[in-house]
Amino acid sequence: MEGNQKQNKLDNPTPPCHEFIAIEHFCVYFVEDLIHTASEILRDKMKCDIFYDYTALKIEEKIHWWPRIKDFTITLGAAKIDEYINNSNEADEDWHYAINFRRIDSDSTSDYYEYEVVFAIPTPMYPIPQGTVSLYFKYELSRTKPAHCPVDITFQMEGFGTVMKPYDLVINDKLLLRGIKTKLANYKQFTF
Asked: What's a GO cellular component annotated to this UniProt protein (predicted)?
């Protein structure tokens, strides 16, 4: 059976997508595969079950998949951002948000789809919030990767220069309130 599995891998003409991911994420997948393979070998040779609990990307497990390049649409991109926010949101406050598609940019190797997610906390006293904070999500659809590979997605908080991957950070009250406080501090510097 093992020889048959190796033959099937050789017959598969589609190149693997792991060749195109960041080195940090490749290492995580490599270690997980190594642990899984070692536990399978031990299970076969020792006839016992091996249990391990090694999960590095908890958020990514909740979002079953990011869209593949060939399946991507503007609507699907917004739906996946909504799924990410709902599954990774650890906020205690009742944050409301709106997802807006902003634009499409292109360069020689990729198309970029940008979305803005505006967060706010409306209250009965202030149904139109006085402060909002935006997260800017950007999908990169590479023309150099195979079409069956997932899109690359990053996001950036309004007023901050750091570009982050969705599974590197959990959206929480502290993050969003920090964005609003920074924005309000900048507004106080303006004089008319």
From this structure: cAMP-dependent protein kinase complex
Residues making up the chain, counted from first to last: 192
User: Residue 164: which H helix or E strand, with range?
Assistant: strand 163-164
Task: Looking at the structure, tell me whether residues 92 and 179 fall in a common domain.
Answer: yes
Which of the 8 DSSP states describes residue 101?
E
Domain that holds residue 21: 2-46
Mean pLDDT of 95-104: 94
Q: Is the pTM of this model over 0.85?
A: no
Q: Do residues 75 and 62 lie in contact, with contact meaning Cβ atoms separated by under 8 Å?
A: no
Q: Are residue 36 and residue 70 in the same domain, yes or no?
A: no
- Cα(84)–Cα(167) distance, rounded to whole angstroms? 9
> Do 145 and 115 lie in a common domain?
yes
- What are the Cα distances from residue 151, in Å, to 19, 85, 96, 180? 13, 18, 27, 30
116: its two tokens: 């803005």
At 75, which helix (H) or strand (E)? helix 74-88
Which pLDDT band, with edges at 50, 70 and 90, does 127 fall under? confident
CA distance linking residue 56 with residue 65, whole number of Å: 16
Q: Which residue has the tokens 């270690």?
A: 31
